[in-house]
Request: fold
Amino acid sequence: NDFRFQMRVWFMKETKTIDVNCGTGCNTTVFAREGKIYRVTPRENNEVNSAWMPDSHRLNFHWINNEELRLTDPLVKNDEGNHVPATWKQALDKTVEELRNFRSSEIAVIASARMTNEDLYMTRRLTRRLRPKFVDIVSRVGESDGYLISADRNPNTNGVKLVLGVDDPGSKIDAIKSGVADGSIKAVLVLQENIVEDAGFSKEDLSKLEFLLVSYPMVNPAAEMADVVLPGACWAEKSGTMINVTGRLQRLNPAIEPPGQTMQPWEIARDLVQALGGGNGIYSATEIFALLAKEVPEFVGISWNDVGDLGIPLVETGVTIPLLEKERERAAQGLIVG
Reply:
């Protein structure tokens, strides 16, 4: 019903990608035309989702087309406390100017397990340049539905562990909150997260910060408080890889172009590193993947093409997908064929 009479199927471009609403990483096909997504359907992968996907995940894309909610230009807070549109250079220069006022021990970086491995790699380079006191992500844990919805509501927690090097994702968020509240943390960089609504940071505490940078696809309470706001691309606009809960490396492909001046998160992290004096002649996600294959042991020997449309096993996690286990049981009993 959501899709009926909206668009002729043969007018749309089909993009093979993956779902990012939880750690399962169901394989999907995104149907889009002229920069607008019209529907998302499951794509068969017998190692991940068979031929199914959760309805709630299938319909979680309409916000992408919402022109009122999407951030499309860098914003910098002026002397009157109002956000004004800026160029990327102006926003980056402002960020560097502010960050030079703080010691490393006064800085925290909050990244996201919704970022690709390539985003996380460039974020790691940024943290090595800044050497912040805290680096963490916002964890999201719910209940498994016993089929395809994982208890881990982040799609790339394993990537955070392997690439960003955060051993216990989410464990330092409370310490960052305390540091913001007591003033020991004076500057926070938030990359692709909504830390007010999703991590419990209060506007009152964020107002104590001397500098706050927020990168996100949409308008959110943390961005309203930020000194610099950078528009980061959403999942449907990104190229990269993620590692699902079973340890399978899968590829995310862009279905539409990001709006306005929006940039992919790895591009934002790269430009921040460059603005801080680091060199980064990197211009594509495939280039970053090649660096992952050299620097991260689990990726050694793997090429971008090796990942393919269905992904490949990367690490053993001991986690299984309930739907696949149930299908295997039914096949063994002769109840289904295949």
Observations:
- The first strand starts at residue 13 and ends at 18.
- The two ends are 30 Å apart (CA to CA).
